[in-house]
Amino acid sequence: MRIGVIGAGIVGLSTAYALRRYPVSVRCYESGAPMGGRSRGGTRIFRLAHGTPALVRYAARARTGWRRWERTAGRTLVGAESTVVSGVGADEWYAAMRSAGVRCGLYADVADVPGLPARPGTPGPFLVDPAGGVIRAEATGEFLTAAVRRSVHVDAVRRITVHGDTATIHSTGGSWQCDSVLIAAGTGTAALAAPLGLPVPAALEHHVRFTFPLVATAGPDGGALPPPRCWIERSGAWKDGFTTYGHLAAPGQWAIGGHLPEEDTAWEIGPDEARRRAEPVVTGYVAEFLGDVVDPTPVDTVYCAVTPELGDGIQVARAGPVLAVWGENLFKFAPALGADLAAAVASRGLPDDLP
């Protein structure tokens, strides 16, 4: 059986990795460097914390998969920093985690949650997810790419055609007929899926993440401070409707992304203008809301294109031998999602266990 995987981001690579267990031939197409699109950047946040018990359980299954990957890779891929969700909806997420039977805590005062880069008086409530932490995204990409390097083809896919039970992948380098295809091409998924009648949303918007120095990296006794917890801040206390996520990007460096108004992220303004608009907003938030702990001088930026308003869900659709997958915030699910997608493309069915 011949299987084509289009996209060598985290979803495509994790699927190709899982397909090594099957008696199949795999080509994983990527027009540029692996992990160079939506999966770019050195770090991400892992969390069990989600709004439904089904998503919590799926993340817990993914965490087990991350541990297996770590044993194989011989290195840490998800840190032990923990993750905090604060503000609007934290209590509902806490209820979902309790319903799923995973360990968590809910606190009213930021003083009860040490390890956040937050000022005293920062509003809660605060949901603490002890299983959360920083995903070493770059290290994960290196591990997966090395494991499947013989399957990766640096080649741009132009279109897919279906002929009964088979499909042909048409790329810059030629055409390849196969029995099953997974489209996991990030921002390119919609264009490849639309001619096949697959309902992948085509809208895109810009998103920029900035990295800032932490003010203090050592305690009063000169010893190293414990790494700060990952933080999803949803209170809107700085500005109504403005929410952020933040985590340790490197020793002494705090990465933070903010959710800006639609007019500042609209696809039509272009990435350079999106960066220009985002920087003063995010640095203003840092200066006024986190300024005792984080220096509001950005030292790095990471840009990506995202699909608006998808949230945490995973979406799939099939047209004959072609399966498409899309969603946002998929990185944390990668070990479980890759295994489920591999089973689906090998059986030419749909994933059974997606939340």
UniProtKB/TrEMBL annotation:
UniProt keyword terms in alphabetical order: FAD, Flavoprotein, Oxidoreductase
MF-aspect GO terms: flavin adenine dinucleotide binding; sarcosine oxidase activity
Xref: Pfam families: DAO
Top-rank taxon: Bacteria
UniProt keyword annotation of Flavoprotein present: yes
Residue span, FAD dependent oxidoreductase domain: 3-343
Cofactor(s) the protein needs: FAD
Record protein name field: Glycine/D-amino acid oxidase
Source species of the chain: Cryptosporangium aurantiacum
